[in-house]
Design brief:
By secondary structure, the protein is of the alpha+beta class. It has helices at residues 15-26, 45-50, 69-79, 90-105, 108-113, 131-149, 160-164, 166-174, 181-192, 194-205, and strands spanning 5-8, 32-35, 58-61, 64-67. A four-stranded mixed beta sheet has the order 2-1-3-4, covered by helices on one side.
Amino acid sequence: MDKPTLYIANKNYSSWSFRPWMALTGAGVDFEEVLIPFDYPGGNPNIKAISPTGRVPILQHGALKIWESLAIIEYVAELYPDAGLLPRDRAERALARSVSMEMLSSFRALRSACPMNIRRPKGKIALPDGVDADISRIETIWRDLLQQSGGPFLFGAFSGADAMFAPVVNRFDIYDLVSRNDILAYMETMKAHPAWRKWEEAARAEPWIVPEDEV
């Protein structure tokens, strides 16, 4: 089988890139990584040259290109069914897809006010309307899944659903948004994952600064 190539952007800031990268790395999938920084005000033309949407992430597998983080995770889960990216139980797979889609399509207030930034020193900011509701809903999702599965990840073992929420773990951490022990314990589990640590190390070494994401 040809090795897929994952095109990503800055590891310090690109939440969309973080999701499939952590999913594939955490599941032990062998893939090539190509990083194209978004260091141009109008977007990097090198991204537009390989992406039909002009954005990353993009997974290329042979002649096929797949965009959008959840679509990439689903495709790789089909390529590597034993990698654990989706739960084996049908009901749990449906639930994993539901919460992943909710992450993909919701929580705009949180994402707008609190950009992902691996290097940011931990500290609170003034939160606009809507952020508290987003935080509460995500806490409920995590708490319900962890109680149902027994942890330490949302569906017991690490899966694509955890990867979909990885940027939120960073946001909750660096903006000091949560205090419940069960939520903090899940965040520590995520941050201790070898894939997270590998991404974090690379992000901290990057030279690029994106002012609009430096809240």
